[in-house]
Amino acid sequence: MNAPDRALAKDGHVGAPTVRGEDQRFLTGRARFTDDVRLERMAHAAVLRSPHANARILGIDASAARETKGVLLVATAADLGDRRSPIPIRLAPLPGLERFLQHPIAADRVRFVGEPVAVVVAESRYIAEDALDSIAVDYEPLDPVTSIEQAMQDKALVHEAVGTNIGSHYHVSRGDPQAGFAKAEYRRKERFRCHRHTAAPMETRGLIAEYDGAVLRVWGATKVPFFNRRVLAKMLASPESSIEMIETDIGGGFGVRGEFYPEDFLIPWAAMRLRRPVKWIEDRREHLMATNHARETECELEIGMKRDGTIVAMRATVMADLGAYTRTGGGVAIARVPQFLPGPYRIPDYACEVFALFSNKTPVGTYRGPGRYEANFFRERLLDMAAADLGLDPIALREKNLVSAAEIPYDIGKLVPYEGPNAYDGGDFHSAYRQALAAAGYASLPRNGALIGGRLHGVGVACFTESSGAGPSESARIVARPDGRYEIYSGVTTMGQGHETVFAQIAADELGVPLSAFQVFHGSTAYVDEGWGTYHSRAIVVGGSAVKIAAQTMRDKLIAVAARRSGLAPERLQLSAGAVIRVDDSSTVLDVARLARAAEEGDAEALDATHVKARFDIKMRTYSYGSHVAHVAVDPETAQVEVLSYVALEDIGRVVNPLLAEGQAVGGAVQGIGATFLDELVYDASGQLLTGSFADYLVPTSTEAPPVTAILLEEAPSASNPLGAKGAGEGGIVATGAALANAVANALSPLGVKITALPLSLNNLAASIRAARRKK
Amino acid sequence: MIEPREVVLTVNGERRSGPCEPRMTLVDFLRETLGLTGTHVGCEHGVCGACTVLLEGESVRACLMFAVQADGGSLTTVEGLAPAGEMNDLQRAFQEHHALQCGFCTPGILTTATALLRDNPEPSEDAVRHAISGNICRCTGYQPIVRAIMDCARRRKAEKRAGGAA
Cβ of A729 under 8 Å from any chain B Cβ? Predict the structure, then answer.
């Protein structure tokens, strides 16, 4: 650790804006990302992918590729023999989705552009890619399914054997929606659409696998290495104990990276077959066509209200395009849309019908805030429309319907088929909302289409809740070393969040040593007995809590040893600067480094106190909440939108490191702002992906990223974990589509522009403005 | 495949050479042949800026150049911004402002900003944003990166003034 011990919060390291110790290796070019791993005799793989959205494979001739100088292996489905089982579901086992699993390599049918058809391993990446060109595949193209509408029609089928494109269809509800709507004095129904896009982390996927005849080592595990090891062991019919997954530095995850993909089988399999290390690094084109897509969802949403704006009922039909196969987390987003549609509002009577659909597009998975970004957009847009219909102030309308602090814990019912009932566990939604409006200076912002310098100004708000802290558990292990260092081992992975610093902060407070004493190891399967990885903003909530418990356990054990050896009562002892000291005169009773030395020399009591394991089992989800406020100016002639200010406020319970938490919030917000205006995965009618490069798939750059004010509240520490923390990774992004769509619609309200779909791209917005003008 | 030829570069002040097929990109030569893995590959089509290095002091995309085109040239990569084990003032500013999360884009942004601050020691925020607009970062939202670069420029100016006064 190189983090200076400074800027301590008044009660210790937790809460201090500590800069990151891990930064130095990234800033000096000495980090080790997946592609930086180099092994002796390493060969390089490239994957041949389907150029068709839907086609039968009539034959594959790989003879020329096999004869190419430098090619070591060409494998198609036929070469995999009995090693052909589908990739299982990790999360969100919605009923029916298990019928649409993907095999690592296509056998007689391809179902999306980018599906693996063959893998080539050669002496160099250049030769492997050359060889791909010489593989002749005879395809018989079939009609593709490329839209939610086509999928619902069930004419062309993505999986004939299943007999339908409707992978899962179910209803969830709470209260009595029919009775609720009977009470409504006003109703409004709208159909909304959220566009297909993806996370696009800077580092593409990649793997290195090496097999020495006994142990298979796989570098590049990033998200859930223990789960992925379980899957790989089963698919290879090898014991888990013979496989080691090794985490490297990771260039961003955001949900898409680190799930079990076809290559996670193919590359280890090739390494075992060749008895040579094999590296595969995805290129950007492959990434955009083969790594999980996300968010493509349509929603028919109806709201029932009293004339005064009190919401009495809501009902929805949601339809999501899951692509060609069920990925490991393919069902998560569509399962979460119904859960988060009611949001932070008091909506007693609610029902939702869900259709999870399959198409001939890239399979989907989770992307930061899965289902939340979509649901918040649908609901918050409709609330503004309803406010306009009723002649009510949209700010007051939300104020009226937010769940009050007195109603917390607020039962949200059982809205996810594979989970029990859930409840918002703490907080004051009104307080967060008011503080966000105040921070944005809402009262004095020009809005409602105010014309200033030729541009129309608008303000949009959105309120949200966000769950975090997926269970069941997380492991941590702390080892005190004779040289005064402490090693923390965790079962979570890290993709740039700064967990090394945060875990050191948590442990430092318990063990009374400086941050520089800690070294944090994470992610690899050798470090702890079992780990659950990093997703659903769980790393601090669950993983950090495990570290806290391990550190507390070590502290207690060290004091107990000192008490036994000195005959002093434990209450008279405390840990300070690497030693157990007497509270009364600060004299040293037991030196921890010396005890660690004794442990290494076989002292069992010393070993027990200096090598500590802990596991934290989390019993409930925890919900953060907040509000976003966007102020925009829109040029009605060019449809150009400038985001003048953006406030993203979230209560995340106890903030362990405000510098890093703010970084998550700002970064998430800019990702979402970009997603709302720019990012879009576009397909043509034949199922070809038209956005296969960063020249076509646009992410925000420094000149498009607007100023974002991130505000973190700590008004409601979570009772779900000993840190009191709630997830901080996703609140920045989840309400961006909602707040921005409302802001742009508010700016364009004098023109009568109706906004029901994302993205708010120049083309889409210009078309909406033209359509509104034609109507007038 | 055309036979490899020897490419000779001065990288971070050191003479480095290795065999190189004419079609090998500069970034692959740096990473694969010379083992300088601090320079990253993010898109291979010149958009993301992760592979930015300084060739004769000018920022270039190492994925859009063949190594043979750089033969005989002088290069600076992220590894050469400060002596081993140390960080320069720009790198320290990035740490202080939390201007990196995953760190994958960071080397390209550091080299780009190095060239900017040399040519324009007192850049406006607009100038900084413009200069790094060819470097994609997916984590930070750019805000802390802009702050770090501006802060580094301010401190350099203050130091220069203090040095001038002394």
Answer: no
Q: What is the ipTM of this complex?
A: 0.98
**Which residues touch A259 (CB under 8 Å, ≥6 apart)?**
A90, A223, A224, A228, A292, A327, A328, A329, A365, A366
Tell me the whole-structure pTM to 2 decimals. 0.97
Letter string b/e over residues A541-577, b meaning 16 or more CB atoms within 10 A of that residue's CB: bbbbbbbbbbbbbbbebbbbbbbeeeebeeeebbbee
A93 by DSSP, 3-state: which? coil
- A1 touches B: beta carbon within 8 Å: no
Query: For B104, which of A202, A660, A663 is closest by C-beta distance?
Result: A202
Chain B, nearest residue to A657 by Cα = B98
Answer yes or no: are the C-beta atoms of A357 and A165 closer than 8 Å: yes
Cβ-Cβ contacts under 8 Å, B48 against chain A: 202, 284, 694
What pLDDT shows up at residue B1? 59
Q: Which domain holds residue B39?
A: 5-80
Amino acid at site A744:
V
Q: Give the number of domains in chain B.
A: 2
C-alpha torsion sign, points B108, B111, B117, B119? negative
Of the residues B138, B146, B150, B152, the best mutation for testing chain A's interface (the one with the most A CB atoms within 10 Å of its CB) is: B138
Nearest residue in A to B143, CA atom: A707
CA B2 to chain CA centroid, nearest Å: 30
Residues of B in contact with A497 (CB under 8 A): 101
Q: At what angle do helices A225-236 and A262-274 cross, to 10 degrees?
A: 60
Name which of A18, A23, A643 to mutate to probe chain B: the one with the most chain B Cβ atoms within 10 A of its Cβ. Answer: A23
- pLDDT for res A6: 42
| Residue range A455-472, pLDDT digits in tens | 999 999 999 999 999 989
CA–CA gap between residue A496 and residue A77 (Å, rounded):
36
Architecture of domain A471-522+529-617: 2-Layer Sandwich (3.30)
Please name the residues between 237 and 266 in chain A that touch chain B, using a CB distance below 8 Å.
Answer: 249-252, 254
- β-partners of residue A653 are A725
The partner residue sitting opposite B87, judged by closest CB among A28, A670, A708, is A28
Residue A40 touches chain B, beta carbons under 8 Å: no
SS3 A679: coil
Q: Are residues B96 and B149 in the same domain?
A: yes
Average pLDDT of the segment spanning A770-774: 94
Number of cross-chain residue pairs from A and B with Cβ atoms under 8 Å apart: 175
Domain with CATH 3.30.365.10 in chain A: 425-468+621-775, 471-522+529-617
DSSP 3-state helix, strand, coil percentages of chain A (rounded to 5)?
30, 25, 40
Give dist(CA A368, CA A40) in Å, integer: 37
CA A539 centroid distance within chain: 12
Sign of the torsion formed by the C-alpha atoms of A162, A166, A167 and A173: negative
The first and second tokens of residue B140, run together, are 């930070």
Which residues in chain B have their CB less than 8 angstroms from residue A33's CB? 37, 40, 104
pLDDT for res B163:
82
Residues of A in contact with B137 (CB under 8 A): 202, 702
Buried b (16+ CB within 10 A) or exposed e, A96-129: bbeebbbbbbbeebbbbbbbbbbbbbbbbbbbbb
Q: Which of B40, B43, B143 sits opposite A33 (nearest CB)?
A: B40
Judgement on whether residues B132 and B102 belong to the same structural domain of the protein = yes
Q: CATH no. for residue B138?
A: 1.10.150.120
Q: Does A533 contact chain B (CB < 8 Å)?
A: no
A344 three-state secondary structure: coil
- Please tell me whether residues B99 and B71 are part of one structural domain: no
Q: Which CATH architecture has domain A425-468+621-775?
A: 2-Layer Sandwich (3.30)
